[in-house]
Amino acid sequence: MSSITKYFQLDELHTTFRRELLAGFTTFISMAYILFVNPSVLGASGMDKGAVFTATALASALGCILMGVLAKYPIATAPALGINAFFAYSVVIGMKVPWQTALAGVFVASLIFILITIFKLRELIIDAIPSDLKYAISSGIGLFIAFLGLSDGGLITANKSTIVGLGSFSVGTTWLTIFGLIITAIFMVRKVPGGIFIGMVLTSVLGLVTGLIPMPKHLIAGAPSLAPTFGVGVMHIGDINTIQLWVVVLTFLLVTFFDTAGTLVGLAQQAGFMKDNKMPRVGKALMSDSSAMLVGSVLGTSPVGAYVESSAGIAVGGRSGLTAVVTGVLFVFGMFFSPLLSVVTNQVTAPALIIVGVLMSQSLKYISWDKMEVAIPSFLIVLGMPLTYSISDGIALGVIVYPITMITAKRGKEVHPIMYLLFFVFLGFMWILNIE
Fold this sequence. Notes:
Elements: H1 2-7, H2 17-31, H3 34-43, H4 49-71, E1 77-79, H5 83-94, H6 99-118, H7 122-128, H8 131-152, E2 156-159, E3 163-166, H9 172-189, H10 195-210, H11 232-235, H12 243-271, H13 282-299, E4 304-306, H14 310-315, H15 321-334, H16 346-361, H17 372-388, H18 391-408, H19 417-435
Antiparallel strand pairs: 1-4, 2-3
Helix pairs in contact: 2-15, 3-4, 3-5, 4-13, 4-15, 5-12, 6-12, 6-13, 8-16, 8-17, 8-18, 9-10, 9-16, 10-16, 17-18, 18-19
């Protein structure tokens, strides 16, 4: 016990072993929903849900443990919501890229992520993308996954006259979504730790009681096999041989990188770790995250990123890496609850997607809406993602327009050369989509 206290510097951080255990458990409960939501989202691309479940648990566990042991931060990681939607709905379903090739894209992006971390190129990349567009990307992804939740839950449906319309309230499962959304919203407003997870549990219970969800035969079972997804991405690296697929790789890299960087800085500020506006050991934190992303792509899941739900553990006193280690260990135990996958239907996960969309959309307040040269491209990104049903298309719209509006505002010199490069890359990307 004393060696653990010394390694994680519990005394210096004014925390205790018991408090760190509680913080780790709180963080796990707050983000445990990803064990069931991720297989649901990636399953839409044709991936085996059981294999994704196990891959999600293992990749999350590895990321958390590395973050705790190496970077010594109370920050948990797991396959990120938003980028998994990009993987399934934009790349696989929208672009008709096989999920095996998309997984290879994640693998390549993770290798690049590790390289830029080793060579400390992250500052250059962060500086190249203007902060307004970073916030727009985060918010746009939030609106996109909320749109998915509303659709999966039956609250909105396709409508020939108005494109989309209100769903039918004569369908029982739609009311299940409504119940889940209301009860989860109440928990979130009351700031109940693990509110999203508890909302999913109560919605599942209501579904079982009313017969809208079939009763599972078991609660605990061995972890589902990784065979359907293990190593598939590595074997399909050769499939990444077009500009379109390299744009996909770039998007995986950029979205994951900036989402993680922003989350890390935000959580470090909450916990009081920032020094002179810089985050100590950020290199180790990014290395932990990118290593988990690499392993996750081999196991069979979308990119891993830092989770804002870690704030729940920090809020109850978590200050050391022990918090993240505890969370990682709990993810390992979570593998043995795979039978619950049949209980966690689209109507159960839909409220979680909607609420997470709300959380991600909070970045909108940081965009300079009073400056049209950044407001217009930011708006196109935010609105473009849900309306084109594609995260990459939304980003492309904003990145293409940004240099034009900045030059028009006589601020062209403020645009980083990399942004001009991305202008041509995304123009080519849009052209490729058109000819197909």
